[in-house]
Amino acid sequence: MAARTKARKRALDLLFEAESRGLNASTLLSQRVETPVTEHPLPDYTRELVEGVVAHWKDIDELLSTYSQGWSVERMPDVDRAILRIGTFEVLWSTDVPESVAIAEAKALATELSTDESPRFVHGLLARIAEVKPTLI
């Protein structure tokens, strides 16, 4: 598994855990950096993703709600919501990840970790956000 793919998975784990436990994602990230729960420290890209998602949280959720066609953010499965937040951050604000890569990586995470319908949903929603990106930024 590529380093960035692993970093995305770790970011997903952190965002999912924070939301599931009702914790602030930034606080949980700081705790994991200070006191790792595995023998491997968090990759820099994991931190970059979590910090980026937190910094743009409101905008990301607004976009997901606007373009998800009938699905409120709260109604989405928790893991899909975390994947979509990471994917949206990468599509809109990452300067070194091509949109197509961000979308493919998000779809792969959904395929591995969520429902049978999730990969298609994640791909479609992120593709739509990428399509309207010029009007958003």
Automatic annotation (TrEMBL):
Q: Does the keyword Transcription regulation apply?
A: yes
Tell me the Gene3D superfamilies matching this sequence: NusB-like
- Cite the GO molecular-function annotations of the record: RNA binding
Query: Which ranges carry the NusB/RsmB/TIM44 domain?
Result: 6-130
What processes in GO biological process is this protein linked to? Answer: DNA-templated transcription termination; transcription antitermination
Q: What InterPro entries does its record include?
A: NusB-like_sf, NusB_fam, NusB_RsmB_TIM44
SUPFAM superfamilies of this UniProt entry?
NusB-like (SSF48013)
> Superkingdom of the source?
Bacteria
Task: Cite the entry's keywords alphabetically.
Answer: RNA-binding, Transcription, Transcription antitermination, Transcription regulation
Q: Which terms in the GO cellular component ontology are assigned?
A: cytosol
Please give the family membership noted in the entry.
Belongs to the NusB family.
Q: What does this protein do?
A: Involved in transcription antitermination. Required for transcription of ribosomal RNA (rRNA) genes. Binds specifically to the boxA antiterminator sequence of the ribosomal RNA (rrn) operons.
Instruction: Write the protein's name.
Output: Transcription antitermination protein NusB
